[in-house]
UniProtKB/TrEMBL annotation:
GO terms for molecular function: 4-hydroxybenzoate 3-monooxygenase activity. It is an enzyme of class 1 (oxidoreductase). The keyword Oxidoreductase applies. Residues 8-335 form the FAD-binding domain. This is 4-hydroxybenzoate 3-monooxygenase. Keywords: NAD, Oxidoreductase. The keyword NAD applies. Its EC number is 1.14.13.2. InterPro entries: FAD-bd (IPR002938), FAD/NAD-bd_sf (IPR036188), PheA/TfdB_FAD_monoxygenase (IPR050631). It comes from the Bacteria.
Length: 377
């Protein structure tokens, strides 16, 4: 350790949902930590991404005393009856009772903004603009994280900097195994300046899947199934709205489109989720089909498991939870991946048969009928 090194117990790389949740849980466990985020506060508080938490995620935040992070966001609970439009006909989802209680529709930027406020209010050390992060000595009992002209020595490093972050690339080649599944189609994702009412509407149509999901009181994101080789240039604004009209079976309110991108649907899991004193969590360790709306919920699950594991070793000298961190998280990840693949196939194959054929369409339609209320007699 150089004379200029700072010292803490945990360095968390990444200030998204996974990193901020972990930092909050550690702080509330009395464990010192530093959260490093390469972007500015303004950037991360406005970054538009996933928009829902499952019941377990909401309950978890409340149990840690930070239920306020999902309150007052304007999205509403996720147990309200929302429509599914099948070939232009409005159907209702079956509303099975979740033993964990109701989830919540909450834009990611709102959850991040709330977690930042809570973490800083509680005295957390959160550093924005932490660029050029380098992870060192991960296979020793005193790893080090360098950024810009600073260095922090610690006992543990948490890699929560997303799929394109530096944490996973710090693991030696050949140690991690990447498992992936490509669905064979993509979503044209468009951020619009039009509120969603209701907060989430999805459609199954012979032209492909479509959805509009709330991203706050004045914005929504539109999703349209498309071929993986489509480009943004193939989707001028008028085509986006025309296609949404067609797949919803009625005209929708139109407005400005701020951004568009083509997102191939896939699932990715890296195993194991731990190397030496580095633990990966959230998107740094796995990606899940956006159809599942499970990304933020998985991030919270990883954060809680890791927080309890680190607390076990720091407070009790018990390394067993940390040693089992990867296995515990991966068991949950694979369970959710299985559900995500099933749901993604059901929602997409039951519409456009050109991707996987009429047989798979009819199978998917049968599965879809198990998810919605029966048609009125």
């Amino acid at each position: 350790m150089s004379r200029t090194d700072e010292q803490t117990t945990v360095v968390v790389v990444g200030g998204g949902v996974a990193g901020l949740a972990l930092g909050t849980f550690l702080l509330r466990s009395g464990i010192p930590c530093v959260v490093l985020e390469k972007h500015s506060r303004e950037y991360v508080e406005q970054r538009q991404r996933a928009g829902s938490l499952d019941g377990r995620g909401v309950r978890m935040l409340r149990e840690w005393g930070v239920g306020e992070a999902v309150e007052g966001h304007g999205g509403g609970p996720s147990d309200v009856v929302l429509p599914l439009i099948v070939d232009g006909e409005r159907r209702a989802w079956r509303m099975d009772v979740d033993e964990d209680g109701a989830g919540a529709f909450i834009p990611q930027q709102v959850l991040v903004r709330n977690l930042i406020r809570i973490f800083l209010r509680d005295g957390g050390d959160l550093r924005f603009g932490a660029e050029d992060v380098v992870l060192e000595r991960l296979d020793t009992d005193q790893p080090r994280v360098r950024y810009r002209d600073k260095a922090i020595s610690c006992e543990f490093v948490a890699g929560a900097d997303g799929f394109q972050g530096v944490s996973r690339t710090a693991v030696p080649d050949g140690f991690l195994t990447c498992h992936s599944h490509e669905f064979g189609y993509a979503w044209l994702s468009a951020m619009t300046g039009v509120p969603a009412d209701p907060v989430a509407v999805m459609a199954v149509h012979s032209r492909g899947f479509a959805a509009r999901i709330t991203r706050g009181p004045e914005a929504s994101r539109v999703y349209l199934q498309c071929p993986v080789d489509d480009t943004v240039g193939d989707w001028p604004d008028d085509r986006v709205w025309d296609e949404l009209d067609a797949r919803f079976g009625s005209a929708v309110v139109r407005g400005p489109i701020a951004t568009k991108q083509v997102v191939p649907l896939r699932g990715v899991v890296f195993s194991p989720m731990r190397y030496g004193r580095l633990c990966l969590l959230g998107d740094a360790a796995h990606l899940i089909s956006p159809m599942s709306a499970e990304g933020m919920s998985l991030a919270l699950h990883d954060a809680e498991v890791l927080a309890r594991a680190i607390a076990g070793e720091v407070e009790k000298g018990d390394p067993s939870l940390l040693e089992g961190y990867s296995d515990a998280c991966l068991a949950h990840v694979w369970e959710r991946q299985a559900s995500a693949v099933w749901m993604t196939d059901a929602m997409h194959d039951s519409g456009d048969a050109s991707y996987r054929g009429e047989f798979r369409k009819q199978v998917a339609r049968a599965n879809l009928e198990n998810l919605v209320e029966p048609k009125p007699a």
